[in-house]
Design brief:
9% of the residues lie in helices and 44% in strands. With 208 residues, the chain is mainly beta. The chain is globular and about 55 Å long. It starts with 17 loop residues before the first helix and ends with a strand.
Amino acid sequence: MSGTDGTVPGIGGCPFDMDRLQSDYVNGALTPNRIIHFTGDELKTDVKMPLLPLNDYGNKDHEVLDVIACSGFYETSTLNFRIPNLHKPGAARASDVWVVIPQNIIVPQLVKKLHQGAIDGIYIATLSFLSAGDEDKPQVTQVHDYTSCFIKFVDSLSYGALAVFAFSFVRLKITQHDYKQISGKGANGAGGQYVYEFDYNAALGKKG
């Protein structure tokens, strides 16, 4: 039995109902609204999208891939709510990040990185259509910036059109770009930006 979001334990701990995702993807019933970008010269996809604010990372033409599904969570232990003084006996923890992508040139490169060192950075961005200009193009409204990532799992054989991989990371930075509706003009205006960063090596978090 799978959840409404397609979550179900699978091969190697994969948290997705891959048969269902692949059926939706192949039949054209699933439009990805997230993209993934890998830093470094090795992990190239030949798919370029000049999206803001990914340009803030110093590259005008970021090579990206569609993200069909993504899963990752952050947690900490807390004593029972019936105890008068709540305590967290331990540092925050983060799960591996699981990502489903289409089969493409990046998959063998991920297998190669499985046997090598860390990837400097992996960015997963959420897209939204908010432009009110001459071009209708998606804008990035949220970025998960993972630093010092180690590829831990790659499945490129079990599913025909899709591949699954998982990675761990040292530092997480979440950037949220908020927009507000300007009803009089029928447009959207920038409502502000919020950034939160947590370093799991130093057990230190900060916001900006």
